[in-house]
Amino acid sequence: MQSIRFWKKSYFCVSILLGTLLLAAGASASQPVGTGVPPEGDSSVQSAGPEVSLTASGVAQAQVLDVPEHKEAPPVAPKPEYTFTWNIAITSNYVFRGLTQTDGKPAIQGGFDFTHRSGFYLGTWMSNISWYTDQNAGTASAPVAFSSPGSVGAPYVPFRSNSAHLEWDFYSGCKNTFATDWSYDLGIIEYYYPGVYENKGAYRQPNTTEVYAALGYKWLSLKYSKAISTYTFGGNESKGASYVDLSAAIPIQDTGLKILAHVGHQQYPGHANTAYWGASGGDNSYFTYSDYKLGLTLDKWGCTFGAAYTYADTKYTAPDNECTAYQNAFGRNIGRGQVAVTISKTF
User: Fold this and answer.
1) In 3-state terms, what secondary structure has residue 152?
2) CA 344 → CA 67, 91, 246, 256, distances in Å?
3) Is 238 within 8 Å of 270 (Cβ atoms)?
4) 147 φ, ψ to 5°?
5) What's the distance, CA 220 to chain centroid?
6) pLDDT in tens, 35-94
7) 3-state helix, strand, coil in the chain (%, to 5)
């Protein structure tokens, strides 16, 4: 029995021993009857026949069980030359860098993306907005919407208006992965706001061009954006403004849930911009702020459901409490606390 257990553990030894027993059995069969037959009652030898039969069966089973069947791996599908996708979203409040772009109202959004397998990408994206014409052309105590600022007087003129209700972005760049868990993204984006700009006064047209660079590790990313256009989001003397974005999208095992966390910092050069700030005691540094975000997303039924709370420490006014910074014509700070609930889908 010890030999049998040993044979099961070692195919090589079992084969040699089995061959030896078979040869011995052949030699015994060639002798005259009775020659070499052991005395009756020697159970150790009498059981040799059945044990040899079982051993042979055991060897056959070992051959089946111990040698895995060879299966060819399924062919790996080649990476497509390019992909083209489009997306659509509905949100209760369009928040960008901690600032509501719709004064807390809903937005419909969508875009198209082309990606080449080399990492090159090109895309466009749109959303309704109202922030530009919601700005206060008057003062905190006598607000006037920037959509019709003529009543304020110089530098505005009567019976002229401004209108901008659409943000239309165009972007291009190159992104890829390296060293397994790392990624990078280099690109340029144009924030384009088609509209009517007849009475800009102390403001400027909001079209803005930025270059950006991002580095990612697993679910963490760090991105730096730098404005290279003459003006940044309509601010005079605002060229060179920058934004730093540290974001995390932490997956919760295989639930489809992700925890979102973000901290960002918008920096404006501290130019005097007296056309806007006048003698209020403020300058463009009053447009500088930091923002924070906590949220949750769920991938379900082919859609992404999200909810987030953001906070931006944006200033209401300049030191005179009259010349407004981020307080719009309706008396609301477009930063501070914001909540957004979003449903999106990519096709």
Assistant:
1) helix
2) 51, 8, 23, 14
3) no
4) -65, -30
5) 9
6) 333 434 443 333 344 333 334 344 344 344 455 566 676 777 788 999 999 999 999 999
7) 20, 40, 40
Q: Which domains does the chain have, with CATH numbers?
A: 2-31+43-66 (no CATH), 82-346 (2.40.160.40)
Question: Is 289 within 8 Å of 263 (Cβ atoms)?
Answer: no
Q: What is the 3-state secondary structure (H, E, C) of the chain?
A: CHHHHHHHHCHHHHHHHHHHHHHHHHHHHCCCCCCCCCCCCCHHHHCHHHHHHHHHHHHHHHHHHHCCCCCCCCCCCCCCCEEEEEEEEEECCCEECCEECCCCCCEEEEEEEEEECCCEEEEEEEEECCHHHHCECCCCCCCCECCCCHHHCCCCCCCCCEEECEEEEEEEEEEEEECCCEEEEEEEEEEECCEEECCCCCCCCCCEEEEEEEEEECCEEEEEEEECCCCECCECCCCCCEEEEEEEEEECCCCCEEEEEEEEEEECCCCCCHHHHCCCCCCHHHHCEEEEEEEEEEEECCEEEEEEEEEECCCCECCCCCCECCECCCCCECCEEEEEEEEEEEC
Q: Is pLDDT of 175 > 90?
A: yes
pTM for this entry: 0.78
For tokens 């590790």, the residue is 217
